[in-house]
Write a structure and sequence with these properties.
Chain lengths: 273, 249, 255
């Protein structure tokens, strides 16, 4: 079992002197292996900054991030992204100039972890398990619907056998129907491949429905306001949205979330690019 | 306060150094090229106080000014017509497309034959380059106006004149800005060459005479002057653009 | 469309033949030009049947191609460097920014002095024009690549070389090809001018020579040929780009 993530006292300040922006302040929480954690917060609260720090795209100013005991980030450590923590991006980052198959096999081939035939076989298997997407192997991403693109991107991540699967508001731009379908798909993938998932969103419903643990963040500078354990059974089914347990969970979180949302609104916070 | 671009300063310094070395050591080809210091001195002593030199500036600027202005005054309406009137477009656009790839300078002999004065023939050449650029830019911009905007306006009962004034025109302004910037660079390029071939005044002529008389200093001063003049014109155009598009801060 | 061509040709002819304006009288008329162009025994020696015509075309085409090739080979890597690396951009941008405002044709006299001969000088000046256009557009192309692609490649384990080949080059390719088309067009313009000022043989030279020898229909022939070659070469580049970027035509709906 792997994929235990630990955040301790993580802060991040951009710039210096008068122009400095404190994006994160003293964030701490623990993620167990194979756990599904959702991080919820209003626009501009630093959720993406947090994800960038975990993924290794950016440094931290203070604090420490460890993964299975190994230090990923601390002040002075140069960030190094890697296939143990693969990201699924908000606007989708499938390479438009590569076919679905080439996209998906990119990681293992570049790391020389698998031979081409082995990589392609694994890819086709994973694509098939994601709803018959193996038929799109020779297509270009632009020919696929956004839901299909997201699923392919998740497969691309899973191909590397990562310890962490990081998703940055991946379903934000989708309509209600597609989103619901993607939720079930992601839950299915999580159950099957037992990966630790860190899922960023601004949607509390989505967070509670998908996660084992919901971390509520304050508005900027972001810090952990509340941690909620979601005790709904797995596998999750849409009927749970109307259960009493769900309503309870939502009520306990809603006040925090709304308070932060109102503060962000009044401040005119903008999403970081 | 922006931090000084030390890297830029380094590369420029290296460039000047290399130039000086090549000139001083009389490297192959550089026999007649003076080093930067000599150029500076010559400029200070001979050209700065020379009325004829500054007259060249005025002459070249005038030609570019007239040609460029004419190109915009004629080109923008033509582009608008081509973009909005279907029939006009179908008849005239192919002719425009046909004439466009002909290099402006290739028009020189015809221009000389046609126009009564040498001055007019040069202004015409300066006009041609920016003219085609702006026509194409404006035409493409009109064609590219978002259909949704047009439909919305029409469904709200706007008249064609209103639609033209308030929706098409504003979306054309950025294209005009780009067209002007490209056009002014082309205009300068062309006027210089036209002056080299077919005139006895102006900065291009000055540079050419330097070549003919094997005076490297003149050639270089001519080039630098032309570069400066072009740069100034571009600044003027950029300023005009910013006034045209205040929302693009 | 044909109405336009015919109309323009008719207008041209009418102006030259009938308008009592001195200016128009001096111009050659379209009939004269066409008959000359297509005649097996042209009065002034240049038509599609004469070897001299193709010789001039060959000279111009060779110069344009050489200059363009050099500009691409130097400009694309330089543009990638400027777009990708902040420190490299610091070095290069200032120097290029200083040289760029000088109109390319202003370099002709200097180039002739340095290269001791018009052939290399004309190619050099043509090269300059194409070079600046290529470098600029390539740099813009690289800078406009969504940073998420770089991040995705990084977390998938790509090395810097992988990123260059898998992200930077394909990502910038559309802009690179726009730049190449512009560079090609600009190269022909510059070449024509350079040939008119200072060359032996070539279509620009032909224009000046015809003018000096009072062979006016040939002027128009040379002009039209220049336009044609310029258009064809740009079209060739566009086609090559479309083949290399086949993924672009596959999008659903609007781009």
């Amino acid at each position: 079992m792997s994929g235990a993530l630990s955040m301790r006292g993580v802060s991040k300040t951009y710039g210096s002197g008068e122009a400095s922006v404190e994006a994160l302040r003293d964030c701490s929480f623990e993620v167990r292996a194979e756990e599904f954690v959702a991080i919820v917060g209003p626009s501009g609260c630093g959720k993406t900054t947090l994800l960038n720090a975990i993924a290794g795209f950016d440094t931290v100013s203070t604090g420490e991030i460890t993964l299975d005991g190994r230090r990923l980030a601390a002040p002075g450590i140069a960030p190094r992204p890697g296939p143990d923590r693969v990201v699924v991006f908000q606007h989708g980052a499938l390479f438009p100039w590569k076919t679905v198959l080439d996209n998906v096999t990119y990681g293992p081939l570049r790391q020389k972890a698998l031979s081409r035939p082995a990589a392609e076989a694994k890819a086709l298997e994973l694509l098939r398990a994601s709803g018959g997407l193996d038929t799109t192997a020779a297509s270009y991403p632009a020919q696929l619907s956004s839901g299909m693109q997201r699923r392919v991107e998740i497969v691309r991540a899973l191909m590397n056998d990562p310890r962490l699967l990081l998703l940055d508001e991946p379903f934000r731009a989708m309509d209600g129907f597609s989103k619901a379908t993607m939720h079930q798909h992601l839950l299915d993938m999580h159950r099957r491949y037992r990966k630790t998932v860190v899922f960023i969103t601004h949607d509390l419903d989505e967070a509670i429905y998908l996660a084992d643990t919901v971390v509520v963040m304050t508005t900027r500078p972001g810090t952990v306001k509340q941690v909620i354990r979601v005790n709904l059974e797995r596998p999750r089914v849409p009927q749970m949205l109307y259960s009493r347990e769900y309503a309870e969970l939502k009520r306990s979180a809603a006040e925090s979330v709304h308070e932060e949302a109102r503060r962000a609104f009044e401040r005119g916070e903008k999403e970081q690019a | 306060m922006k931090r000084l671009n030390w890297r830029g300063a380094v590369s420029i310094a290296a460039f000047i150094l290399m130039w000086t070395l090549l000139a001083r050591l009389k490297a192959p080809g550089f026999a007649e090229i003076p080093d930067p210091a000599a150029v500076g001195r010559a400029f200070w002593d001979k050209y700065l106080p020379s009325a004829a030199y500054w007259r060249s500036w005025v002459v070249s600027f005038e030609r570019v000014g007239y040609g460029f202005l004419a190109s915009q005054l004629l080109g923008i309406p033509l582009g608008l017509l081509l973009g909005t009137r279907r029939v006009f477009h179908d008849v005239v656009y192919p002719v425009v497309e046909l004439l466009r790839p002909i290099p402006p300078l290739a028009w020189v002999p015809l221009s000389i034959l046609f126009w009564p004065t040498a001055e007019l023939s040069i202004v015409f050449i300066t006009f041609i380059g920016p003219f085609f650029i702006i026509v194409i830019n404006v035409h493409d911009a009109v064609r590219g106006t978002r259909k949704e905007h047009l439909w919305l306006a029409r469904s709200l009962g706007a008249s064609p004149a209103y639609i033209f004034r308030r929706i098409i025109l504003p979306s054309v302004i950025p294209a005009v800005a780009v067209g002007m910037t490209l056009g002014i660079a082309v205009a300068w390029n062309v006027v210089i060459a036209a002056e080299m071939i077919a005139s006895d005044s102006g900065l291009g002529r000055l540079t050419w005479e330097g070549y003919v008389s094997h005076t490297g200093t003149t050639v270089l001063i001519g080039m630098i002057s032309i570069g400066l003049a072009g740069y100034l014109s571009t600044l003027l155009v950029t300023y005009a653009e910013k006034r045209m598009m205040p929302w693009q801060r | 469309m044909w109405a336009g061509y015919l109309g323009a040709a008719a207008l041209w002819y009418a102006c030259v033949a009938w308008l009592p304006l001195e200016s128009f009288r001096r111009l050659p008329d379209p009939v004269a030009v066409l008959t000359e162009w297509l005649s097996p025994q042209p009065t002034y020696g240049i038509s599609i049947f004469t070897a001299a015509y193709y010789k001039h075309m060959l000279y111009s085409t060779w110069r344009a191609t050489a200059a363009f090739a050099a500009a691409t080979l130097l400009g694309v890597p330089l543009g990638i460097g400027i777009g990708w690396s902040k420190s490299f951009s610091g070095f290069a941008s200032a120097l290029l920014g200083m040289l760029r405002p000088v109109p390319p044709l202003a370099w002709v006299p200097l180039a002739i002095l340095i290269f001791a001969g018009s052939e290399a000088a004309v190619i050099f000046v043509t090269f300059l024009v194409a070079f600046f256009a290529t470098t600029l557009n390539t740099a813009v192309g690289v800078k406009s690549i969504d940073p998420d692609f770089f991040r995705a490649a990084a977390c998938l384990g790509a090395s810097r070389r992988d990123i260059l080949l898998d992200v930077v080059l394909p990502g910038a390719l559309p802009n690179i090809f726009t730049g190449l088309q512009i560079a090609m067009g600009a190269a022909w313009f510059s070449l024509a001018a350079g040939e008119m000022i200072a060359a032996q043989y070539g279509l620009g030279f032909l224009i000046m020579e015809s003018y000096n020898l009072i062979q006016f229909p040939t002027i128009v022939i040379a002009m039209a040929t220049l336009g044609l070659l310029g258009y064809l070469s740009s079209a060739l580049i566009r086609l090559a780009g479309n083949r290399l970027m086949r993924w672009r035509e596959q999008s659903m709906g609007f781009a």
